[in-house]
Amino acid sequence: MYPERFSNLQAHVWPRLRGLLDVHEGGGAPIHMTIGEPKHAFPPWVTEVISKNAAGFNSYPPNDASPELRAAICGFMQRRYGVALDEATEVMALNGTREGLYNAAMALCPERKNGAWPAILMPNPFYQVYAIAALSVAAEPVFVPATVETGHLPDVAALPEDTLRRTTAVYICSPANPQGAVADAAYWRTLIGLAEQHDFKIFADECYAEIYRDTPPVGALQVADELSADRNRIVVFHSLSKRSNLPGLRSGFVATGARSMAEIKQLRNYAGAPLPLPLQAAAAALWDDDAHVIENRALYRQKYDVADRIFGNVPGYAPPEAGFFLWLPVEDDEAAAIKLWRETGVRVLPGSYLAQDGAGENPGKGYIRVAMVAPLQKTTRGLRLIRDCLYV
């Protein structure tokens, strides 16, 4: 017996990709450009911090995080966004941001909204945990197109009134995965206004916010404070996976108003898996340090420049504003991925695997997602192979 709410799940992205490509022989030494797993070096002092605090493995870690880690998170939010948070009531460390993105729906979304089946909105294409979170709370996942026409961000204001009346939360990723689009202050103001008008939460996935070309992306809580909006409506998520090249550390945080945070913490008390204390010590040191982030961002800027040179003449190429993905137009995404693998050894992700059919059409079908996470030389070689195989 399995829950019916999960019975229609399609195969997850990575098994699906292996099923597509692994039946073919690769055409060269593999170049993996599928998963967003940063490969730049992380700060060497991280291991020293973990070793120095290794005795902490002998203790259960606090659910909320150590005082040092909560203080470091608040310091980051103050420096980066000018947002002053109460470290006791408005922040909590996460064992990987995906945990928080999932559990936010569990903790904060009601079973009914205005007497109707609740809806949770998300961009389409989307990070897969958004949809499973909606299904887990018996809400309807509503996939809002994030296409060229909408600036690669969901146009929530264009939704029907009856959908907005039963909306309990909306997931927004800015900078967007996969397109690299950034929600500006005007976008956040509009969305926050809708949230206040229709009484829903905003789950702002800002995990790519430290990887950008020139202008730091504005933050959801930053705009909320400028509007004097209720912080409890805005729930933001950040991660050290991308900021500090430490996906294996599984460290992020959630920040929101005290009432919403109390609900999140209550669920965490029963079902949480807090980060071990030595890793919390490393995370605190990382949130306190901006120098390694500046160095990391400079490496990605080099890759933006390379991508612009290589694909600048490709019709439909859109230089990403931020993040480390390219969202490249193709005629058939699965066929393009197979062709690349068979002829060059480059592995990319079909865009349709990150999206759901909407109005009879999958908005990711005409794209491939390319992760520029490897060192510059390897990334450059992979990008050139993609251009020569698909666009020349």
Summarize the topology.
Layout (H helix, E strand, L loop, with lengths): L12 H9 L9 E2 L12 H8 L14 H15 L9 E4 L2 H12 L10 E6 L3 H9 L3 E6 L15 H5 L1 E7 L11 H14 L2 E5 L14 H7 L7 E6 H4 L8 E4 L2 H14 L5 H12 L2 H21 L13 E5 L3 H12 L1 E2 L1 E2 L16 E5 L4 H15 L2
Helix pairs in contact: 2-11, 3-11, 4-5, 4-10, 12-14, 13-14
Question: What does it look like?
Answer:
Helix 3 (67-81) packs parallel to helix 11 (277-288) and helix 4 crosses helix 10 (258-271). Helix 7 (185-198) links the parallel strand 5 and strand 6. The chain is globular and about 55 Å long. It has 14 helices and twelve strands. The longest helix is centred in the last third of the chain and has 21 residues, at 291-311. With 392 residues, it is α/β, with parallel strands linked by helices. 51% of the residues are buried.
Structural class, judged by helices and strands?
alpha/beta
How would you write the strand order of the largest sheet?
A: 2-8-7-6-5-3-4
β-strand amount: 5-15%
How do the helices and strands follow one another from N- to C-terminus?
HEHHEHEHEHEHEHEHEHHHEHEEEH
Oligomer: single chain
In round numbers, the mean pLDDT is: 95
**Major sheet, described briefly?**
7 strands, mixed
Percent of residues in helices comes to 40-55%
User: Over all CA atoms, what is the radius of gyration?
Assistant: 21 Å
Instruction: Please mark out the parts with pLDDT under 50 across 5 or more consecutive residues, or reply none.
Output: none
Q: What global shape is seen?
A: globular
Total strands? 12
By DSSP (H or I, 4+ residues per run), the number of helices equals: 14
Q: Termini separation (Å)?
A: 52 Å
